[in-house]
Amino acid sequence: MEKRIFIEDNAVIIGIGDYCVGTFPMATIGVGSCVALILHDRLRSTGALAHVMLPESCGVTDRPGKFADTAIEAMVAELEGTGSARSHIVAKIVGGACMFAYSTNTLNIGRKNVDAIRNLLKEHCIRIEAEETGGRIGRSVIYRPAESGRLTIKRADGTCIDL
Q: Which side of the chain, N or C, has fewer Cβ within a 10 Å radius?
């Protein structure tokens, strides 16, 4: 783990509750209890990034990237619509921190987000290739689909790692 500058001039910034699909660099910042969900097509060097806020949509469909269940459905559908085969898609997940010391398991939305995403990926037969989840620290990520799906994580303490 080294400290370094976290810059990607041409990355598309994905906001909280949004997602994007493409071959270009994508980034999202301020991932605390939320989860950065990356679906990467290893064969086509394309993928998707969502900044998931909550585990379940409960029927809300206006912002699919906001919820784990609707984000995965939308991302997989869009990737398959551009020619990806599910058998070539792998996942990376980052975030799901418990941001407040007083949070009990019932209030730990970060853990609930991670658990929901893991279960949904399993249901969709998508393997989790890498993850950095939990803890009590926020993160930001840059995903580069065209660089073999390279994912750089910058933690709130300033350290960076590549997954």
A: N
